[in-house]
Amino acid sequence: MENRFETRFKELEGRHEGAFVPFVTLCDPDYATSFEILKTLLKGGADALELGFPFSDPCADGPVIQKADKRALGSGASVDDMFALVGQLRQSDDKVPVSILVYSNVVVARGVDKFFADAAASGIDAVLVADVPVGMLHTAGDFTQCARKHQVGLVLIAPPNADEQTLQNIAGISQGYTYVLSRFGITGTETAFGKPVRVIARLKELGAPKSLLGFGISKPEHVRQALEIGASGAIAGSACVKIIEKNLGNTEALKNELEAYVRSMKSVTRL
Questions:
Q1: Residue 50 is assigned to a structural domain of this protein
Q2: Annotated catalytic residue: which of 6, 17, 61, 81?
Q3: CATH number, residue 21
Q4: Known catalytic residue: 61?
Q5: Is residue 82 part of a domain?
Q6: Looking at 50, 118, 125, 259, which residue is catalytic?
Q7: Domain count, the chain
Q8: Tens digit of each residue's pLDDT (9 = 90 or more) over 88-110
């Protein structure tokens, strides 16, 4: 069965557009505000959503998203709340592709099979386990088997120095999309945005799921450059989360600024 990501990419190709995908942390700063944020992202024109499950040691994330995780966890949010929030969004939008970024501790603590079953039940299309590289997917309860069992895509990360074997493995396993890192390091807008042309081109040759470029993307010109080097779209996280942090306590200002930002990032995706 074709998943929502595949459907959306086909729709975008038909309109000669690339994808803009914002990232935010679920339940940041709290459940109710987070739901308003998700609706705002869609109102601004987001083509898909990548949503973070907050974790106490988000090793791939920079300080902006680390603080978002702390705010969400400090509000008392639980894993059940994360699934409920996506399920609530699904009641108003059954078409938008939704992926989650999560750390393996959260998946294993819940039980790998139960985690993917709950993901499917809430309407999540794909899961990216940030700290499990492709070579280790069978070491913690068999992520690939459980994902396939529950028809949830397993998104893999392609680093800018990926060798041929790694790219072949990614092409054979990743579903929904492939997360291509623009550069090494952690998330954030402070470090230069990179252009992994070789990786994107080879993944395309290998028939991998569409490439979305992430890390360091914060401006419309970054989205445009991602499309120019062959990616099917771009993901911006820290820039979105900075807007949330800036407007804590003023939900209306938060929504207005966030909608305008998403709209500006989406505006440059016409090919």
A1: yes
A2: 61
A3: 3.20.20.70
A4: yes
A5: yes
A6: 50
A7: 1
A8: 999 999 999 999 999 999 999 99
Please indicate, yes or no, if residue 40 is contained in any of the structural domains: yes
pTM for the predicted model, two decimal places: 0.94
SS (H, E, C) the chain: CCCHHHHHHHHHHHCCECEEEEEEECCCCCHHHHHHHHHHHHHCCCCCEEEECCCCCCCCCCHHHHHHHHHHHHCCCCHHHHHHHHHHHHHHCCCCCEEEEECHHHHHHHCHHHHHHHHHHHCCCEEEECCCCHHHCCCCCCHHHHHHHCCCEEECEECCCCCHHHHHHHHHHCCCCEEEECCCCCCCCCCCCCCCHHHHHHHHHCCCCCEEEECCCCCHHHHHHHHHCCCCEEEECHHHHHHHHHCCCCHHHHHHHHHHHHHHHHCCCEC
11 a catalytic residue:
no
Give the least confident one: 109-118, 144-153, 176-185: 176-185
CA–CA separation, 1 and 18 (whole Å): 23
